[in-house]
Amino acid sequence: MSESRTLAISGMTCAACAARIEKGLNKMQGVKATVNLAMETAHVEYAPSTVTAAEIIKKIEQLGYRAELRSELKSDKDRRRQEIRRQQWILLFSVLLTLPLLWAMVGHFSFTSWIWVPDRFMDPWFQFALATPIQFLIGGRFYIGAFKALRNGGANMDVLVALGTSTAYFYSLYVTIGDKPSELYYETSAVLITLILLGKLFEHLAKGRSSEAIQSLMGLQAKTALVIRGGEEIRMPVENVVVGDMFLVKPGEKVPVDGIVVEGEAAVDESMLTGESLPVGKRTGDPVFGATLNKDGVLRVRATKVGKETALAQIIKVVEQAQGSKAPIQRVADVISGIFVPIVVCIAAVTFLAWYFLEPGDIAGALENAIAVLVIACPCALGLATPTSIMAGSGRAAELGILFKGGEHLENTYSVSTIVLDKTGTVTKGKPELTDIRVEGAFHETQLLSWVGAAEKNSEHPLAEAIVAGIRKKGISIPRAESFQAIPGYGIKAIVEGKGMLIGTRKLMEQHGVNVEHAYEEMNGLESEGKTAMLIAVDGKYAGLVAVADTVKETSRSAVARMKQLGLEVVMITGDNERTAKAIASQVGIDQVLAGVLPEGKASEVKKLQAAGKKVAMVGDGINDAPALATADIGMAIGTGTDVAMESADVTLMRGDLNSIPDAISMSRNTMVNIRQNLFWALAYNVIGIPIAAFGYLEPWLAGTAMALSSVSVVLNALRLQDAEKTVKDGDRGMNGRMQFVLVILLVGMSFFAGYGFGKQENAPKADQAATEEKKQDSHGHGNDKDGKASMATDAVWSTENARAGERTTVRIHIQDEKKEPVQNFEINHEKLLHLIVVSKDLSYFDHIHPEYKGSGEFEIATTFPAGGDYKLIADYVPAGGGKTTRTEWIKVEGASANNVPLKPDREHSKVVDGVQVTLENDHPQTGGEVELAFKLADANTQEPITDLEPYLGAVGHVVILSEDTEEYLHVHPVDEKAKGPEARFVTSFPGAGIYKIWAQFQRNGQLITVPFVVRVE
Q: Which GO biological process entries does UniProt record here (predicted)?
């Protein structure tokens, strides 16, 4: 005899911890354990004769973790709240100590060198004083965790963090003590620890949300009960109610425990258990369940189940087991997690050695890259990928009245292709009524029905109960049968008042030699109406027939339609004859029917479907369908709140509504898609992140940020399952969930690319000349695309509305491919999808605007032309998969035209615009090679150099150049896009000699400054 317990475990930091505990427990004799990192629990089955719970707890403690029996703890909600509060205080302390180190760090970056840093913050010993408590007091948990893991022959995330931060800290200490001329990395270790703590706090908050389903179920329980003892009404805690107690439930009160109504009538809201929104009428003899709500009336109830035996307790137990179990797909993550940390340590060592030999003498740089590798590697996301989705998915399913008994069943439901529905109680209401009576002339109706009632009274079949109820409703007394025999699948045989009674099918009559051929026509007519007709014989002679009909559930037809929308094959199975079965099936839209199947034959039919390669889900009432439920790939039991413990089913559908079936399938599919997203992201994160860090493109502190966000992103993605709709909508759950996941992915991706940029800037002095030249070449600009170098040929179709001077003119640009089809996707080029340059024919007017993308290749903008005449429109864009492309168009604007201004080279190349003096230094450019255009900016009044330029379209400035005839066009970007002044340099090549007009554009204090120059190119 085995027992099962759930243990709460503290101290786990990543998947390697969970794997180590699980491996250690499973090595114990008589123990089978499953450890869930997301729930921080271990579900243990053990043989009390071999091992005790105390010994299991001791084993966990020997492995370096803490464990307690779940039942001996405070509620999970209180425990989590205390842990979150503790983590918040530790994080606050860490942030306060880290901020001065971060402030000192900004002085090392060229793009933040203008920020003032107190001299004290740059003092190595001051940084040492701040970093030390972070490293050993706040970060001590990582050393302890690493020591315990290594002592037990394993390695976890703590090993990586301790190794990475210690390397940065002790190297900095070596530099400080030896007064070495090298960079300090105190801020690296401090920021890493702080970011990891922040990530763990977010992760803890998110995991708390994922367990809300259990918490909400527990919160449904009534706190007190009004019990009648000794003739007195006593209000007492619900824990004190015992089986057999009588209690009252007044309007607006919750039913405290499960029981049977003894007196009274009321409408009871059972939606919190079954998901059924309509209240259920209750009267004497009806069952009621704990946590349901009495809407009206007073009920006197006798307690039948209390404590852990109530329906609510059983539901909570099933959900906890499902959330704590492992899905088969998790094995992949378990295998990888077991070998992950040692591999990462090896990669970090190789990274250090490679950089040390590639950059001789740069130990600091080699250490920095090795630290980034250690810190960015994160087995946590991998370990959380599956259990968080299982938690959220099974919890949400429980809220919808769907109980998956384990993660493996949640996964297996995903692959179901065929649904087999039992008819009675599943497709139909399971409450048949007596509808038709036919009596042969030789018999009296009342006498015959009394004999039929006596025979059927001994049968437990629902049809027999309906016949007896119908006879009693007519006021006919029913005698006692002298003998009774049920013949499964055929009918019954009995002796009543000395008469031999046969009631059942044609085959039953044929077996006993009763001639009933003349009744076939009438019987067929009844069956074609969906009724079940049973023939009656008395002493071997045909005496008549009775017909019973079961009403189809109102939602069965819509539920079957939903199943078909999900691509499922729907089959109905029944013991009824084929004519009756097809009549019922046609009412709900089922095309495939298996009729005349005996109870013991249902499992065989399921096997036949499986042999045909189908994944079968059998849906029944969980009693006479038990063999078929057990045989199917997934057994689904239709329950009503009392059937949650049915052992034969893998999934319990607590609502009688068949819509629970597509809900369950949809929930399983959503969960499996979610798990695969998590696993893909967790694996991709490490596969992409580790090489980026190893090649030196990621700062350690950004690696820590990415690592923290990776775990949080997995948990947040799993939480999307909590918003799953009860009804399937066009095959998906809508954009909100997808957008949340995409935003998280983008957030982590941004940290990678930010790290790449920062690392590249910091390593700029080390970069080779070729890389510099490549970047320089890219900044030269782009022109008319005459050579067709773009990898994707496109064209622009232009249109204008109301092209009149002084009025709003609408300009539309349709971008098409070679087949005249709209180009759908464009790449962002300097913060915009399309840049539109507008110039007058004499180049006296200039505007740089950005039309709005309307979709399907169409851009639109409204602008105002100052005067009539000819204007040239120049569009710059980058089609997805193509290169920078320029397309132009001349338009005629109606209205009074301005006088043409002849284009003459400027004598002075220094101009003042909006209080800013801009000087073009190279005022005599030449053709035949690259030309540098350098612009110096100063305050026009004080002549102080301007160093606070703001980015305009992602760069310090933009330069547009047009030849006098407007045929030659250049759009040039700066060499150093992140410069802030006082100089902005642009490199380009003029296509030929002549007069050119140059417009230089900068931004300061939120104001755009456009400065025109006219030059002669020799």
A: copper ion homeostasis
